[in-house]
Amino acid sequence: MADIEPTSAPAFTCGLDATLRIIAGKWKPLIVYFLAQGPCRYGELRRAVRGVSDKMLIQQLKELEAEGIVRRTDHKEVPPRVDYTLTPLGHSLAEALAPLCVWGSDNMAAVARVLAERETWSR
Amino acid sequence: MADIEPTSAPAFTCGLDATLRIIAGKWKPLIVYFLAQGPCRYGELRRAVRGVSDKMLIQQLKELEAEGIVRRTDHKEVPPRVDYTLTPLGHSLAEALAPLCVWGSDNMAAVARVLAERETWSR
DNA sequence: CAGTATCCTAGATGATACTG
DNA sequence: CAGTATCATCTAGGATACTG
């Protein structure tokens, strides 16, 4: 069969689909949302996003940078100092994420209950 | 506030974290968002959420049902007729998802470009 | 401090075939 | 039509150790 376009035209089913391809994963939304509160250094971010490993954090940051969501600034100092900021695009994404944050807060009890049940039948 | 359960106590870092634990995955947001446009039958949904397999669709629907996001109605007919609706909680979630949908539409070109680049360096 | 480099596993996803 | 049941795959994510 013939190869489809090199660019392949993902042809998103909708805007949500497109967004998900960017922020899918366990950490990206959290990183973006935390950075929305202001620029921050690597170590700070690492502490803020609880549970993330160096490997994952760096990997996600690089992707976000390539995606134009985050900007990395290396101050070329010793000891190293690097900070991360949202680009304007990143800020707009963070704003779009805000309602999910609110929803989670509003329904935190329900969410916790659901997760507890999942534990139950996976044991 | 005090800990409720000493055992699991997920202790979300924020509302966004909580939300993500519910809708993580490739399909759930799309399912919820499509159902927001009205109740629909299994087959319809299957066609709407492009690329999903029976296995995944059913699995995600069951989880969403257990989570109180979706309601399943079996009309007990032959041939089978089953439809799926959002619960009020589901609707509120869909509303929280809407901005992501808009963001994706607004930035679809940028997103497509990013995905194309990913293809490039993964080959 | 801010990363790299390996190795490894669980769980998420996919393909295919079958059924009431 | 609306699912189940298996098997195969894949890759996101985690553990650990090391470095400029």
UniProtKB/TrEMBL annotation, chains A, B:
Q: Where is the HTH hxlR-type domain?
A: 14-112
GO MF annotation terms: DNA binding
Cite the Gene3D superfamilies for this sequence.
Winged helix-like DNA-binding domain superfamily/Winged helix DNA-binding domain
Q: Give one GO biological process term.
A: regulation of DNA-templated transcription
Supply the Pfam families for this chain: HxlR
Q: Does the keyword DNA-binding apply?
A: yes
Keyword list, A-Z = DNA-binding, Transcription, Transcription regulation
**InterPro entries linked to this entry:** ArsR-like_HTH (IPR011991), HTH_HxlR (IPR002577), WH-like_DNA-bd_sf (IPR036388), WH_DNA-bd_sf (IPR036390)
The molecule here is called Transcriptional regulator
Q: Which species?
A: Sphingomonas gei
